[in-house]
Amino acid sequence: SVMPGVIVDATLGGAGHASALLAERNDLAVLGIDRDAIARAAASKRLEPFGDRAHIVAGTFSTMAEMVEASSSWINGRPIVGVLMDLGVSSPQLDDETRGFSFRADAPLDMRMDMSDGPTAAEYIESVDLDTLRALLREHGEQKFANAIAKSILARQPKTTSELVVAVEAAVPMAARRRGHVATRAFQALRVAINEEDRELEEGLRSALAILAPEGVLAVIAYHSGEDRVVKEFLRTQSTGGCTCPV
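Below the sequence we write its predicted structure tokens.
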């Protein structure tokens, strides 16, 4: 149960969570943060019925504390009683076939959550070295074929989602393919790398702790084991003060 006050939705997306929270409790307001301009526009429309109880800003996990400071006149002394972080890619981003997040349709290999900033996935592939790409694929669960996939991607220099799929398929024998799409891990690894999601998550967790009022609630929705491990380790360290009991 959350106290009355402001909830920071640090991954506003299409405002599904934010609208549900505002509809459920009229003593809550939501500061919505998203780096994706398309998401902010959609959220703004969806949150219109809630008027001044919703406030939307452009930012990332790592700028969360700054966004709270910049919104101080709207917050107006109310406590930050909750922070919600929904990790990974949002449904609207996956559904927009032009942005390159998904192998479901051919599109330029972009994958940037903020399309105004930073290298695309295709540009990242142009500059990354074999060791870095191989390690990245391994971090995202690609074990046996990480080296072969990395070599294939670098040799083929894919510029579209279908070219990336072809590069991965060329490196993984049919008999070795698991359930699900053969390129899932490669897509995830590239997306995480170019959006700096690992660094953003760690800085976001620290920001959340800094801005939360006493007895505030931090809720994190994670999708893969790497994120899950980082979040659990952070919460364990904060709850124990870093103290480990002897066995």
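The CA atoms of residues 187 and 201 lie 19 Å apart.
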